[in-house]
Predict the structure.
Amino acid sequence: MHKIHTLENGFKYLEVSNTLSHAKIALQGAHIFYYAYKGGENLLWLSEKSAYEYGVAIRGGIPLCWPRFGSIDESLQQHGFARTMLFELLSVNENDVSSEVILKLSDTPESRALWNHRFELVVRIVIGKTLQISMSTKNFDEKELFITQAFHTYFRVSHISNVVIKGLQNSYYLDTLIDEKHKEREPLRINQEVDRVYMDTDDFIYLYDKDRVITLKTIGSASTVVWNPWIEKCSKMSYMDKNAYKEFVCIESANAFDDFILIKSKKIHTLSLEVSF
Ligand code: TA6
């Protein structure tokens, strides 16, 4: 089953469901903001204060950071423009246990004014027993282009104090809060603001939350961002309740900072993530 919903302000999202799972994907940003097992709760964190309006990124779910991660490129808004641009819904292919949704963003005069490249960004989302998402960048320029990118995934957790992240041990990370590099030696627990870019990370990362383990499997990524705003930053974040820091952790499958991607003319790079909850 799939259905397009249109809110009173014209904001559109696609709802898909099968015998195993249920999801909601905004056409703006190809932004999946709800993914649940059939009859269950949203497994992604979604802010109760989120806006659902064009030009404003939904707070939660999996925002796409593209063609930049972060704010290193002053000519582009933080995390790039893809998450606030309208994608074209190309196809929905579904059966009893799986639903595939494909959306596309192509360059426009508006995007070229921001980032002077000709491109196609194709996002493929498959919901079923797991959640799969990929973003494929095709360079239609004669010259090469470079991108940084991420799936900025907000994972809902029972309480941030119950979270342990494994798979980052022995990776070096940039602590963006103090601009220092360190080596991760232990499974990561969060008891303060964390905003770290781990480099040369493995394809598998594990999020433990009490008796649950969420497995992230990435292809085409060599960096992973871990973020929790903690108390003070959380109180200043847009569209976020001041206590929200207790409810989520972001583990972001990325090509960030030094892990940038060069794409030659007419070539394609794909970043893929599969989450098993
Ligand atoms: O990925 C971590 C981060 O870059 C944080 O520094 C914080 O800014 C977060 O993303 C949210 O950014 P946003 O632009 O979505 O408010």
